[in-house]
């Protein structure tokens, strides 16, 4: 019996996610039904700031904005691609609001819905569910610019951008908390936090959304001292796949079914566990999150810069081993964001720049020790921070070394949309954690540098030392406090290798180098990958994000309990089967498999009834003997 229930669940999860009903299909709601739904949504003003596609360096206040948006946008019948030109102003309204910035992926929502309240979200989920459409969710859409993970073809895309409440509850002793609407980005939170004299742990790049960041785990420059996003969240408000408004905390949850007044409570912590690292918009539509607001700590910041002439892979291994050692020495009192960039001409070299934060005073022994390490062992320069970033410091270092006026562009996001869907935020990423084999890690990264110099293709290797998180080793697994894999929970640092767009290297050469050189090297050396910063085609993605099969199984069970029809889905999320290696199944397969499972179940029941009698006879026969 258990077997057939499992088969049924697998069928639902496996075949229920892929093919979404789209415009023109028989299942698509009539225009009248859409109009009635749209009229039921609130009339609040809908304004939103969009990420500037292809202009990753533009300051936030120069990002394009749309005022008085419609509640619902339908994809025009003749709209096949978006962003053939990288200019927001030249896009159709639908392309603007759908952020369909991955022409190569050929994935586009059929309709984009902008709810302005929790009740709007409930109405949208109910409408989508009743009409058996697919639902996908996007907040500020950073995963769109980094890896194209949230949209499914023909889905009804629910955008949370208008949900922008921000309520502070300061507390003089603990710091207090802040409740944030799901449409906010950290840039807005940090500005307000400065006025409140509080520290909120959030993404290093401030344009990251407050919900997507948390769902993946959420790392921050402050994580070594204050933990990941999953350690900083106090409350999650969500609309589930059946339209209930659910309030989720560490101690349990309460929920109110759509259209009902009564509130039910439960002490189940399944959703609390799954949402804190289970990744992406597959669990429900989060409408708000409450984070801890910390009292302001003392922070000392400085830059480290060095140029290492290229002396071969063996010498590079020594440098990388030093990086590993200094990172361990730093422990949870520091955070570091470092970039290593190969220079292929005039003379091959590696540029190194790191931005270091110490949670204490410059005069503390721990701080002096690390500074001395860089000065004496690394022979590096140290400068104090003056409103610089790693990128701008690297620009000047690069210019000084190569004699070039061209800026060197180092950023997490790719610079051309054509690379988005296949490579995500970096060609490859991985976690170096407390158990990582140091020799394996230095060998793999030194080999990336070696190949880069040999083939004359510049690579950027970014290191985020933000992960040690809370003192000591944190438990992982199905019974641990979060579903995060060992490397994400106990990382010392994350590595992301990028092959930037560059002169003299065609897009095909770039892709070939990424897929055939960089990715295998890193994927083989590092077991865990951070859900939110991952390559698009990642082998063994489930165990890389969540560790053990038992953890993945628990996540899948929770997904089935809360979304049995797989209404919600996203790329490489629990419930996703869209991986290109699995052939797409037509929707009728779902019904055939269900009917087969039912038929087998009937056969099994009949067999048991007959077989049960035989066992009884045999037993009686034995007794008689
Ligand atoms: C420039 C840049 C810098 C970054 N820096 C950091 C960093 O410092 N630390 C870090 O940890 N990560 C960082 N990231 C990765 C970032 O955390 C992920 O891209 C994350 O997914 C962004 O979340 P979002 O809400 O902005 O994006 P979205 O694309 O809107 O959402 C990401 C995922 O979350 C789901 N989701 C979003 N909102 C909701 C909601 N309200 N309800 C349900 N599901 C939802 C989406 O369906 C999708 O699966 C960075 C990314 C970029 C592009």
What does this molecule look like?
The strands form five sheets. The chain has a seven-stranded antiparallel β-sheet. 36% of the residues lie in helices and 19% in strands. It has 20 helices and 22 strands. It has four domains: 1-16 and 587-625; 20-159, no CATH class; 166-295, Uridine Diphospho-n-acetylenolpyruvylglucosamine Reductase, domain 3 (2-Layer Sandwich), CATH 3.30.465.10; 300-540, 3-Layer(aba) Sandwich (Vanillyl-alcohol Oxidase, Chain A, domain 3). The protein is α+β, with helices and mostly antiparallel strands and 625 residues long. Residues 1-19 form the signal peptide. GO terms for molecular function: FAD binding; oxidoreductase activity. It holds the Pfam family BBE. Its cofactor is FAD.
Question: Outline of this structure?
Answer:
This protein is α+β, with helices and mostly antiparallel strands and 625 residues long. The protein contains 20 helices and 22 strands. The chain has four domains: 1-16 and 587-625; 20-159, no CATH class; 166-295, Uridine Diphospho-n-acetylenolpyruvylglucosamine Reductase, domain 3 (2-Layer Sandwich), CATH 3.30.465.10; 300-540, Vanillyl-alcohol Oxidase, Chain A, domain 3 (3-Layer(aba) Sandwich).
């Amino acid at each position: 019996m258990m077997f057939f229930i499992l088969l049924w669940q697998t069928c639902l999860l496996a075949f229920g996610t892929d093919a979404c009903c789209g415009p023109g299909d028989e299942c698509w709601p009539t225009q009248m039904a859409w109009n009635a739904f749209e009229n039921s949504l609130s009339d609040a003003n809908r304004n939103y700031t969009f990420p500037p596609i292809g202009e990753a360096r533009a300051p936030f206040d120069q990002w394009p904005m749309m005022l008085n948006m419609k509640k619902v946008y339908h994809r025009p019948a003749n709209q096949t691609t978006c962003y053939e030109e990288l200019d927001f102003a030249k896009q159709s309204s639908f392309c603007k609001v759908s952020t369909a910035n991955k022409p190569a992926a050929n994935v586009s929502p059929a309709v984009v819905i902008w709810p302005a309240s929790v009740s709007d979200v409930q109405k949208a989920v109910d409408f989508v569910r009743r009409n058996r459409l697919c639902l996908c969710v996007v907040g500020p859409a950073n995963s769109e610019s980094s890896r194209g993970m949230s949209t499914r073809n023909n889905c009804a895309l629910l955008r949370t951008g208008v949900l922008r409440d921000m309520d502070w509850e300061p507390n003089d002793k603990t710091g207090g908390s802040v409740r944030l609407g799901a449409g906010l980005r950290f840039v807005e939170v940090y500005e307000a936090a400065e006025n409140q004299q509080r520290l909120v742990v959030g993404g290093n790049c401030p344009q990251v959304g407050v919900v997507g960041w948390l769902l993946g785990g959420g790392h921050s420059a402050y994580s070594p001292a204050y933990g990941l996003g999953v350690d900083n969240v106090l409350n999650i408000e969500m609309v589930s796949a059946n339209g209930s408004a659910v309030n989720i905390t560490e101690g349990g949850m309460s929920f109110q079914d759509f259209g009902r007044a009564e509130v039910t409570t439960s002490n189940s912590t399944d959703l609390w566990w799954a949402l804190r690292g289970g990744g992406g918009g597959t669990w429900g539509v989060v409408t708000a999150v409450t984070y801890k607001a910390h009292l302001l700590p003392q922070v000392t910041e400085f830059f480290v810069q060095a140029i290492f002439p290229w002396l071969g892979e063996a010498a590079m291994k020594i440098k990388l081993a030093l990086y590993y050692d200094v990172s361990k020495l730093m422990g949870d009192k520091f955070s570091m964001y470092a970039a290593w960039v190969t220079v292929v001409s005039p003379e091959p070299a590696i540029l190194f720049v790191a931005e270091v934060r110490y949670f204490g005073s410059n005069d503390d022994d721990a701080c002096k020790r690390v500074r001395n390490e860089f000065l004496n062992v690394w022979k590096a320069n140290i400068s104090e921070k003056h409103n610089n970033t790693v990128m701008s410091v690297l620009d000047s270092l690069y210019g000084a070394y190569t004699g070039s006026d061209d800026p060197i562009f180092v950023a997490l996001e790719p610079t051309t949309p054509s690379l988005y869907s296949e490579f995500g935020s970096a060609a490859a990423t991985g976690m170096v954690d407390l158990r990582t084999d140091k020799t394996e890690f230095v060998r793999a990264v030194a080999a990336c540098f070696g190949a880069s110099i040999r083939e004359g293709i510049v690579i950027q290797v970014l290191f985020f030392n933000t992960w040690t998180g809370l003192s000591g080793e944190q438990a992982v697994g199905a019974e641990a406090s979060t579903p995060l894999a060992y490397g994400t929970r106990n990382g010392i640092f994350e590595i992301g290798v990028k092959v930037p767009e560059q002169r003299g290297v065609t897009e095909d050469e770039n892709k070939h180098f990424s897929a055939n050189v960089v990715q295998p090297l890193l994927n083989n050396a590092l077991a865990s990958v951070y859900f939110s910063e991952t390559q698009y085609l990642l082998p063994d993605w489930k165990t890389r994000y969540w560790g053990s099969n038992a953890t993945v199984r628990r996540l899948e069970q929770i997904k089935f309990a809360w979304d049995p029809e797989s209404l919600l889905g996203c790329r490489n999320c629990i419930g996703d089967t869209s991986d290109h290696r699995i052939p797409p199944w037509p929707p009728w397969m779902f019904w055939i498999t269900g009917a087969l499972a039912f038929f087998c179940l009937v056969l099994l029941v009949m067999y048991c009834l007959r077989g049960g009698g035989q066992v009884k006879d045999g037993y009686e026969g034995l007794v008689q003997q």
